[in-house]
């Protein structure tokens, strides 16, 4: 009799554990991908978990390419993505929900000896292309008005990422076309450029500015875009001094798209896990409260409504 009771109790214990594991898995949201979106999604997860303590998050940054590949391989529930989705990715089942906007800016060190002139004249799209893709400008002296005998040290991203893809698209190419020393991740690329007074690179806005002070990160500066190609940065092209200015320029389309772009959740087909659907719904509604304070640009109410309809119908 005791043996039967023991066996029955053991089976009940196994069944309880199995149900608990299943419930835990269903309430765990695994996310990986773009450095650009990572800080906001971490903020969202913290707020959401405080309101929904049964939900767990596993979030890692590794670049947009990893976010897409992990999502399509279904090793994560959601990928973080920060460039336009290709036809090939759509053909493999990529599903996307837009969340907010940011931009990629060209960065240099605050110790660059030509900083004052560069901020006055900026660089045109063609000049950036000549540096990053064509390789026809390799020395600072090849830019009008600069006297120098120093080569331009170019830095790019070594990981498949939305920042590099978006910057390259603005210049008429792909990430593979970008020249330079490959650096993994946004934070490391920002540090490499800040520490090289003859260097040039690019970063997502959230890694250039400090959202607490509204100022540029220590060591970081920006080369403005000469949008009208007149050899100088006019008053309506000056919007880089602080975070509020550049975010307003992105929101008002003064800063072009690309390098401004929308940021997405991606998955293999429409998410089926209810915890994911609930979280995305929250991000598109209550979670939008945290977009601006986290250093991003909200997308329009019309787009948010369209994404909500796409998710829920």
Measured between the Cα atoms of the first and last residue, the distance is 55 Å
Secondary structural class: alpha/beta
Categorize the overall geometry.
elongated
Largest sheet: 9 strands, mixed
The portion of residues forming beta strands comes to 15-25%
Number of strands: 9
The CATH topology of the largest domain is given as D-Maltodextrin-Binding Protein, domain 2
Find the CATH superfamily of the largest domain: Periplasmic binding protein-like II
Which class of the largest domain in CATH terms? Answer: Alpha Beta
Order of helices and strands: HEHEHEHEHHEHEHEEHEHH
With helices defined by DSSP (H or I, 4 residues minimum), what is the helix count? 11
CATH architecture of the largest domain: 3-Layer(aba) Sandwich
Summarize the structure.
With 313 residues, the chain is α/β, with parallel strands linked by helices.
What does this structure look like?
The relative contact order is 0.18. This protein has helices at residues 2-26, 38-51, 64-73, 87-91, 115-121, 125-134, 162-170, 186-194, 243-251, 274-284, 301-312; strands at 28-33, 56-61, 78-81, 94-109, 153-157, 181-183, 199-204, 220-222, 260-268. By secondary structure, the protein is α/β, with parallel strands linked by helices. The protein has 2 domains: 27-101 and 263-312, D-Maltodextrin-Binding Protein, domain 2 (3-Layer(aba) Sandwich); 103-251, D-Maltodextrin-Binding Protein, domain 2, CATH 3.40.190. Strands 1, 2, 3, 4, 5, 6, 7, 8 and 9 form a 9-stranded mixed beta sheet that branches.
